[in-house]
Known about the structure:
The complex is a heterodimer.
Chain A: H1 6-33, H2 40-51, H3 55-78, H4 86-124, H5 127-133, H6 138-176, H7 181-191, H8 194-220, H9 225-256
Helix pairs in contact in A: 1-6, 2-6, 3-4, 3-6, 4-6, 4-7, 4-8, 4-9, 6-7, 6-8, 8-9
Chain B: E1 6-15, E2 18-28, E3 33-37, H1 44-52, E4 59-64, E5 67-68, H2 74-80, E6 84-87, H3 99-103, H4 105-110, H5 115-128, H6 145-157, E7 163-167, H7 175-192, E8 195-200, H8 203-209, E9 212-217, E10 220-226, H9 236-243
Parallel strand pairs in B: 3-8, 3-9, 6-7, 7-8
Antiparallel strand pairs in B: 1-2, 1-4, 4-5, 9-10
Helix pairs in contact in B: 5-6, 6-7, 7-8
Amino acid sequence: xxxxxxxxxxxxxxxxxxxxxxxxxxxxxxxxxxxxxxxxxxxxxxxxxxxxxxxxxxxxxxxxxxxxxxxxxxxxxxxxxxxxxxxxxxxxxxxxxxxxxxxxxxxxxxxxxxxxxxxxxxxxxxxxxxxxxxxxxxxxxxxxxxxxxxxxxxxxxxxxxxxxxxxxxxxxxxxxxxxxxxxxxxxxxxxxxxxxxxxxxxxxxxxxxxxxxxxxxxxxxxxxxxxxxxxxxxxxxxxxxxxxxxxxxxxxxxxxx
Amino acid sequence: xxxxxxxxxxxxxxxxxxxxxxxxxxxxxxxxxxxxxxxxxxxxxxxxxxxxxxxxxxxxxxxxxxxxxxxxxxxxxxxxxxxxxxxxxxxxxxxxxxxxxxxxxxxxxxxxxxxxxxxxxxxxxxxxxxxxxxxxxxxxxxxxxxxxxxxxxxxxxxxxxxxxxxxxxxxxxxxxxxxxxxxxxxxxxxxxxxxxxxxxxxxxxxxxxxxxxxxxxxxxxxxxxxxxxxxxxxxxxxxxxxxxxxxxxxxxxx
Lengths: 257, 254
């Protein structure tokens, strides 16, 4: 007789096994970040790749979101004569939520997929095995620099996104919503608190870690040629996005409480 | 009796429920070239991966100069890897690095040699494998298959290893380029005086580079003898493999 609970049990065991493998991978990767040798050149290259080259996509996302947010808040606010709160709510929304989350989601697509594809290709073409035979630990050479670079550069990118996002709102508010520029900026800075920005930057660092860790894990464990690399890339993007959204809620709830 | 450079004792490995290696015993002395032959899926690559530490055997020992590397702590094992050189089947050159950086990878990143000195040694090794120095700055993708194999050979020998492993060194090459690679393998292993372990399907290559040949079948070494005795081994599996016949004790995997 077929046991109806067997498939559920198998699925639960598979999920637990995956969590165990991921935890082991993370523990080895984090240890590699803080033990010599340190490949400074690789770290610098990854900071450029993950941080600097992501600036255009982050800037464009921020400016359009800031602008759209200003318009929506104006429409919503006008329903109960609260249009003057546009700068306050734009800065709150951008710094606490939209800046880090949208930057995280954009980089899940750009960076996590890139890391999974690059490391996955190295895995299926035996380049990672070759590295091991050349007395070089792939965790130290490939994974630690990416993990550190993503964790450290994402907060910087989010800070830039915060500024550009607020300026997007400012541009729309002053050009089409008849706001006075000086008043808009004064309201923005008076209302904004350090905690809002710090919360966003903490989220960004955590999201950066997630993006690099999930991408590297999927790539490192990919198998089966091009198909396997494709699957690893898809899993990296989907996994990063789901984790970012879940962790975003947990961090927000923790700070609100 | 001197200690073998490399010795495998009772290596067992099961993959996806199949007993791929079922007690492999092998030994290679300093200066000796051993070629392991066997059909596709017979476990040749798994044997090599167990020796190199890329896979952990379920049972058995891998002894290098008499020391069991399978029981060594990771840092000691990593240091021990410096005795090994490896030429991978597809070359396994790093796409993001230039040819000279690929060849000098171990010197720069594991041995701490300055980039200037490492580059000079890489160019010198490129000359040894007949790879023109003007290719030093190009990426692997810009080289032909034969040139990539030469670069990969240069990477394997640059640190003067005690044992070199060759995984299907001539696969995917035309017969003339394959013969040139075989000549280079013989020349460079003789010059270094190191032990060499190769796995291949290619019998002309095996005849050229081997002092001894071992046949792997059913997870075990079923025959071992000198390269010159392979045509009258008295083993029907070796005879079938050497003759390339579909009929015989070995069932073709199709």
